[in-house]
Design goal:
There is one protein chain. The protein is an alpha/beta fold. It has 12 helices and 11 strands. It has helices spanning 2-7, 21-33, 36-43, 47-61, 77-102, 117-122, 124-134, 147-156, 201-204, 217-228, 246-253, 299-312, and strands at 66-69, 72-75, 110-115, 139-144, 161-165, 173-188, 208-211, 235-239, 257-260, 273-275, 283-292. The longest helix has 26 residues, at 77-102. The radius of gyration is 25 Å and the shape is elongated.
Length: 317
């Protein structure tokens, strides 16, 4: 079966020349690198072999797929259309292989999960623990990053699931709601901000902060909140791209920060942290798990989604 899926040509074209799966695989790499030489190096093939591959595809499609640009090449409109279908075909073939292989095997196989840091810290560990107990043969490969990094990986098929904050809907993807995540201002319990019974947004401007760099969604949202109230933006003394470091930095430096309320659960962060309750600074976002709607989800991946939802619904302590 695998040999059939790997080598057999598929669907006739208007010129009655079939497209070959291997040619399409090579075509994807050429389209990505926009350079025949670099594609040949990655694929361990000669440039003439790849040129013949492109020629076969162009003959089958009846249109030019690439055009020269400077020292490289780029897709034509026809090439862009073929790339979309080539990627979909690859996903379908991979899904077919996995589904056929999973028949009768139950909860087995490898799950490739992309997950944002907050979910990686609070949702994945208990869900993975339960999954391993139910299915010791399952393996997990996780990539921890922000959604802007994970989404291209999901689109390319490098991960099966993306667990992160909800983004605008995009054709080809489906999402399953997990929970609401609230981002709040936090500080060590000994911080002077707590000497005020009801601190205001203006009061926050008198203190220094540890935050993610500009461009991070939570940082931009917080900066814009101060902008809307015509107040100076937070005075940032420490910037960190490592979200998991923020609770420790807050506790050790005495700085204000902007983190998930989940970190304030008793014993979670390892530091005595407390929310600075200023209503204007509560950022609400939806946590979802996203996957390709036409792709195959193994029984193990479906079970992991259910377990993630279970622990997302667990009330905060």
């Amino acid at each position: 079966m695998h040999r059939c899926l790997r080598h057999r040509s598929f669907f006739p074209t208007p010129r009655s020349n079939p497209l070959d799966l291997r040619d399409l695989q090579y075509f994807e790499v050429i389209a990505e690198l926009e350079h025949m030489g670099r594609a040949a190096e990655r694929l361990h093939r000669t440039q003439p072999a790849l040129t013949s591959c492109v020629r076969r595809l162009e003959e089958a499609c009846g249109a030019a797929l690439f055009e020269k640009t400077g020292r490289g090449i780029r897709l034509t409109a026809a090439g862009s259309a073929l790339l979309k279908w080539a990627q979909r075909t690859r996903f379908d073939v991979e899904s077919a292989r996995r589904e056929i292989g999973d028949i009768g095997r139950g909860l087995t196989g490898n799950i490739k999960v992309g997950i944002v840091p907050t979910a990686a810290q609070f949702l994945l560990p208990p869900a993975a623990r339960d999954l391993m107990r139910e299915a010791p043969g399952v393996t997990l490969r996780t990539t921890v990053a922000l959604v802007d990094v994970l989404k291209p990986l999901l689109r390319a098929g490098d991960i099966d699931l993306m667990v992160g904050t909800e983004v605008p809907a995009e054709t080809g993807f489906a999402s399953h709601y997990l929970a609401e995540d609230v981002i709040v201002v936090a500080a060590a319990e000994s911080h002077p901000i707590f000497s005020k019974p009801k601190p205001s947004l203006k009061d926050l401007t008198a203190h220094r902060w540890v935050l993610q760099p500009p461009g991070a969604p939570t940082r931009d949202w917080l900066d814009q909140t101060f902008d809307r109230h015509r107040l100076p933006r937070p005075l940032v003394q420490v910037e960190s791209t490592m979200l998991l470091m923020l609770p420790g930095l807050i506790g050790e430096t005495g700085l204000l920060s902007f983190i998930s309320r989940l970190h304030l659960q008793a014993g979670q962060s390892g530091a005595a942290l407390r929310e600075v309750k200023v209503p204007a600074t509560a950022m609400r976002r939806r946590m979802v798990v996203t996957y390709r709607d036409s792709g195959y989800l193994s029984p193990a991946a479906q079970r992991l989604i259910n377990l993630l939802a279970k622990y997302a619904d667990t009330p905060a302590g």
